[in-house]
Amino acid sequence: MKKWVQLIVTAMCLIALAACAGQGDGDIRSDIRSQIAGKSFVYEKEGFGSDFTIEIKDDNTYSYYEGVLSSIIGGGKWELDGSVLCLLGEGESDRPIQNYFKVDGSDLVFRAEKSSNFVYIDVSDGERFHRQ
């Protein structure tokens, strides 16, 4: 009988622990979403004739504009995986565009690995876009 009680208590603890872990992730994701959704971010370096801006919209879409000398206004959908933001879109040659950023407070930090980069400006790993 004693082993059954221990087994039941252990199972209940594991269930409670799993529930808490799930809530924490949701809270973190919600907090990160609130840091980026509905906000604009400007590249720390010069854009193509003016500011290079990324706008993260509330409806899980985004747009970017590399500057006044660029004729391209890009965009697509965005997703969050923990604190990693992925911008998904279509390129001029129908190649998929994927750009990854680490959300770091009020900044987006570019992650070059697995990113396809942008059209006129080549953003390097670790470069930042600051929230306006």
CA-based gyration radius = 20 Å
Under CATH, the topology is which? Lipocalin
Percent strand equals 35-45%
The CATH C-level name is: Mainly Beta
Identify the strand order in the major beta sheet. Answer: 1-2-3-4-5-6-7-8
Give me the CATH architecture, please: Beta Barrel
Q: How many separate helices?
A: 1
As for the number of domains, it is 1
Largest sheet: 8 strands, antiparallel, barrel
Q: What gap, in angstroms, lies between the N and C termini? A: 63 Å
Outline the structure in words.
With 132 residues, this protein is an alpha+beta fold. It has one domain (33-131): Beta Barrel (Lipocalin), CATH 2.40.128. The chain is 27% helix and 36% strand. It is built from one helix and eight strands. The chain has an eight-stranded antiparallel beta barrel with strand order 1-2-3-4-5-6-7-8. The protein is globular and about 40 Å long. The model is unreliable at 7-25 (pLDDT under 50).
From the structure above, extract its key features.
132 residues; 8-stranded antiparallel β-barrel; 1 helix; globular
Give the SSE layout.
Blueprint: H1 2-36, E1 39-43, E2 53-56, E3 61-65, E4 73-81, E5 84-90, E6 96-104, E7 107-111, E8 128-131
Care to give the gist of this entry?
The protein has 132 residues and is α+β, with helices and mostly antiparallel strands. The chain is built from one helix and eight strands. 15% of the residues are buried.
